[in-house]
Amino acid sequence: MSDTNADKEARLAQGSEHNLPSVDTESALPSYARTLSWLSLLIILLTSLGLSFFISNSARETLLTRQQEFAQQLVENLNSQIFRRFAVPTLMAYGHIALRQAEQYERLDQVVTSVIQGLPLQRLRIYDFSRRAAYSTNKEDLGRSGLAPEYLDTILYEGSSKSEILTSIPEWQAPFRIPLAPGSFQLRILYPLRGEPLSPGGRAPIMGALELTQDITDDYERVLTFQGIIVVMCLMSSVIMFGLLLMLIHRAERVLADRMNKTRQLENQIHSNERLVSMGRVVASIAHEIRNPLGIIRSSAELLQRRTDKADAGTRRILEAIYDESVRLSQTVNDFLDYARPRQPRQDLVDVNLVLDQALAFLEGDWMRRKIAIERQCESNLFIHGDKDLLYRAFYNILVNGQQAMDGPGIVRIKGMVDSEGHIRLDFLDSGPGFDTATLPNLLDPFFTTKDGGTGLGLPIVQSIIVSHGGSIELANGPEGGALVRVRLPAVASSEV
Ligand SMILES: Nc1ncnc2c1ncn2[C@@H]1O[C@H](COP(=O)(O)OP(=O)(O)OP(=O)(O)O)[C@@H](O)[C@H]1O
Ligand SMILES: [Mg+2]
């Protein structure tokens, strides 16, 4: 509200000179930002999924390696125990090894059981060179051929060892079939059963093949669950990030849309203001041209009035009307020109209290008749640099507006003080109906009036005068009703007074 229209015009005109960013250039930004955000989201999603697979796969690998290492050690231990505690004593006692003999089988079983007792083993078999199960923790397997895997010969004749995972369900189905049935995943390891080397540094002879089967379903299931948790968490965090990004994009789009709308409005405003400014110039020059002929009409009417015979009442009334209307018209023209071409204020040291005294003194007589009381509470140190005639005009307009609004007896309260920011604050509060809130935003527009004989230039002139003094004006309604006009003016430091 503190800006004059001239200021606004100047600012807007400046905006148009500098060519405000056009709407088209700005609208390219959101789609670009959108694509970028979607792309980054895709990258985040793929990276986090890849990472989760990598982490869970390495956990799976670690588990399998551990199990294999454990089985390997067990097999080696078993091998040496069987040789020392079964093969050697048996050979010494019987001269040969024949597991079909119950006594020998019993002895081997004791050795094996003592080693594997308490260990999570599912099955242990020993194959002989005829590929039959010579020993098994499962009695039904004994003597059966066809239980050994194809590659048994490479273990028996080449002495290599081999481990593999046996699955009863396809591996890719496993995550979806948790909890898994016992025995779904088994680790089988085949290892040559060796004796002692016949000569120092020579190769130990192979006596058979040891097959060890472990149920690793539980451990495998744990890894799968862990894998699932990681994947789900990655997906969830990606979805949350995606949501946040979408929110940000939407907000950014809204802000951009708002900005574009404002730009559009501003552009429209600039155009209409430019039209108004040029129209204003034309009207101001016409008003200027009207002023002189109006003066001649007024003085001629006055002259004719004096020369007209007192008895000719009809002619006198017509001349009176011509005179009154020309006075009113020239007042309007003057007001308009004051508004359209405001004069630069002088920079004298002005005592605001004195200017108020003057304005009130002028109105005093009339207000006494109308029963309008004045309540004045002004600090004494209200000094500004400015033009006392212009300030008088501003205060006068405000006071007369109050008088017209009260339309009869009432009270006008004037408060003046210097605030903490070094501004003089003047409050004019009347006891009238107050400003109409519906039209409040228009009251500072030139020619806005609700009065029959009003020009609607009073408040715009007040604003223009106050702003030209570096101040501001605010219109509001008082807490207990009545119109409140608040004027702020830069105070002169008391040291300068
Ligand atoms: N003290 C007030 N109380 C209520 N309404 C007011 C008051 N002062 C101004 N207004 C409203 O603001 C409008 C504009 O005031 P402004 O002084 O600019 O013009 P005006 O008073 O109508 O005409 P003019 O000043 O030329 O006589 C008024 O018509 C009136 O509706
Ligand atoms: Mg007025």
Folded structure, characterized:
- The chain is α+β, with helices and mostly antiparallel strands and 497 residues long.
- It has two domains: 25-227, Beta-Lactamase, CATH 3.30.450.20; 344-496, Histidine kinase-like ATPase, C-terminal domain (Heat Shock Protein 90, 2-Layer Sandwich).
- Helix content is 55%, strand content 16%.
- The chain has nine helices and twelve strands.
- The chain has helices at residues 5-17, 23-94, 102-116, 152-158, 217-307, 313-340, 352-370, 388-406, 458-468, and strands spanning 123-127, 133-136, 162-167, 185-194, 206-215, 348-351, 372-378, 383-386, 410-418, 423-430, 472-477, 483-490.
- β9 and β10 (423-430) form a beta hairpin.
- α2 (23-94) packs antiparallel against α3.
- The protein is rod-shaped and about 170 Å long.
- The two termini are 30 Å apart.
- The structure holds adenosine-5'-triphosphate and magnesium ion.
- Residues 397, 401, 454, 458 line the site of magnesium ion (MG).
Brief overview:
This protein is of the alpha+beta class and 497 residues long.
pLDDT below 50 for ≥5 consecutive residues: which ranges? Answer: 1-28
Distance between the termini: 30 Å
Major beta sheet, strand line-up = 2-1-5-4-3
Radius of gyration: 53 Å
CATH class of the largest domain: Alpha Beta
CATH architecture type of the largest domain: 2-Layer Sandwich
Tell me roughly what share of residues is in helical segments. Answer: 55-70%
Q: Using the alpha-carbon principal axes, give the shape.
A: rod-shaped
